[in-house]
């Protein structure tokens, strides 16, 4: 009896362990499937993300050759790691963002290294007793000043990363020079490896399936105008539907303006990135990228007015013909503006705008 009871307990434990293991395995499989679906969705939404991932992998592989080949490693030694780090932190999705970070890092490394060497040389003249004190004061003053400059809006928008790298490079060179006399060689290796990593990143980013922030900004602005046109057109149609039919209509066209209200940060980021980009496609040097911010503000103002119009969808008092015509003409004008912006031609929107004004006066 005791042996049979023990056998039953063993069977029960085995069954419980099997059930637990099976459930745990199913959870892992479900997680893997969800991750795969999310990855597929991200790739389908913007295939450029996949291309960007391969470009980053290629750039890191190329600069890693400094570790694989002895004749390259002998020239830089462990400092070759800075080239790999430069690729990792500089390579961004668009060409403009990559060039902006690369230029910031290169200039900041040059200035920070030069100033660090100068600080080391000057403080060494004060003698061994005062050298550490003077070096600490110089690090404090330069770091505090550079950090304060990061709070200026214009500097923060375009040069925040450069100021950060300047502080890092200056501190490393000046402090390391206190124990190591080869401070110039250290600064030279750091600058050289940063330039090598930045150059490899820029070449791959520009010449292999480039992603231009200027084009993204241009298309985003035109798309936002089209969304407002669709919203106005949908508003004119839904405004005069009966209450029984309203629930059958698709609300996606009317809710399109909501996404327009939340793109300010994206527009500012794209403008800052586009200013770093060289001439490409239809965009020449000194292209007025700042005007896109003004257009974006006007688009958001229009979106806020459309948001206010939604309050009148369930209104009992409806002025049918003038409102229908005004919505139609405004939608037509916005479509013409979006078309003109996409093709970079003068939009023929004067007639629809004048017609919508006449409807408003009626």
What does this 3D model show about the protein?
It is a single chain. This protein has 2 domains: 51-207; 213-361, no CATH class. By secondary structure, the protein is mainly α. Helix 5 (81-90) crosses helix 9 (183-207) and helix 10 (213-238) packs antiparallel against helix 15 (320-343). It has helices at 2-45, 48-63, 65-68, 70-76, 81-90, 95-124, 128-149, 153-176, 183-207, 213-238, 243-246, 256-260, 264-274, 290-309, 320-343, 350-361.
Give a concise summary:
The protein has 362 residues and is mostly helical. Helices cover 78% and strands 0% of the residues.
The number of distinct β-strands equals 0
Oligomer: single chain
Count the helices. How many? 16
Rg from C-alpha positions?
31 Å
N-C termini distance: 99 Å
Unreliable stretches: 242-249
What percent of residues adopt helix (DSSP H or I)? over 70%
Structural class by secondary-structure content:
mainly alpha
Tell me the major beta sheet: none
Give helix and strand order, one letter per element, not per position.
Answer: HHHHHHHHHHHHHHHH
Task: Determine the strand fraction and express it as a percent band.
Answer: under 5%
Number of domains: 2
**Gross morphology:** extended
pLDDT averaged residue by residue: 80
Organism: Sesamum angustifolium
GO biological process, one term: monoatomic ion transmembrane transport
Subcellular location: Membrane
Protein name: Aluminum-activated malate transporter 2
């Amino acid at each position: 009896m005791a042996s049979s009871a023990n056998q039953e307990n063993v069977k029960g434990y085995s069954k419980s362990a099997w059930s637990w293991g099976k459930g745990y395995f199913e959870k892992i499989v479900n997680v893997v499937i969800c991750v795969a679906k999310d990855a597929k969705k991200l790739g389908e939404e913007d295939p450029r993300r996949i291309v960007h991932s391969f470009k980053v992998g290629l750039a890191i592989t190329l600069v890693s050759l400094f570790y694989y080949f002895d004749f390259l490693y002998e020239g830089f030694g462990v400092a070759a790691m800075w080239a790999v780090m430069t690729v990792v932190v500089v390579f961004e999705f668009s060409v403009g963002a990559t060039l902006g970070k690369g230029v910031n890092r290169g200039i900041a490394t040059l200035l920070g290294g030069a100033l660090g060497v100068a600080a080391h040389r000057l403080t060494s003249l004060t003698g061994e007793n005062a050298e550490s004190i003077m070096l600490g004061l110089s690090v404090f003053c330069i770091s505090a000043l550079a950090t304060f400059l990061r709070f200026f809006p214009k500097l923060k928008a375009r040069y925040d990363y450069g100021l950060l790298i300047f502080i890092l490079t200056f501190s490393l060179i000046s402090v390391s020079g206190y124990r190591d006399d080869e401070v110039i060689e250290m600064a030279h290796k750091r600058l050289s490896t940063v330039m090598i990593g930045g150059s490899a990143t820029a070449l791959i980013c520009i010449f292999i399936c480039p992603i231009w922030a200027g084009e993204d900004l241009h298309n985003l602005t035109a798309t936002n105008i089209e969304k407002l046109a669709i919203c106005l057109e949908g508003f004119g149609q839904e405004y005069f539907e009966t209450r029984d039919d309203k629930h059958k209509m698709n609300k996606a066209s009317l809710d399109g303006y909501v996404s327009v209200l939340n793109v300010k940060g994206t527009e500012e980021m794209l403008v800052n990135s586009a200013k770093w980009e060289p001439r490409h496609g239809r965009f020449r040097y000194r292209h007025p990228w700042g005007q896109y911010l003004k257009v974006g503000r006007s688009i958001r103002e229009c979106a806020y007015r459309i948001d206010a119009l939604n309050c009148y969808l369930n209104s009992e008092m409806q002025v049918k013909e003038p409102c229908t015509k005004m919505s139609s003409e405004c939608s037509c004008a916005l479509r013409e503006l979006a078309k003109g912006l996409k093709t970079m031609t003068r939009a023929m929107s004067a007639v629809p705008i004048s017609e919508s004004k006449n409807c408003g006066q009626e």
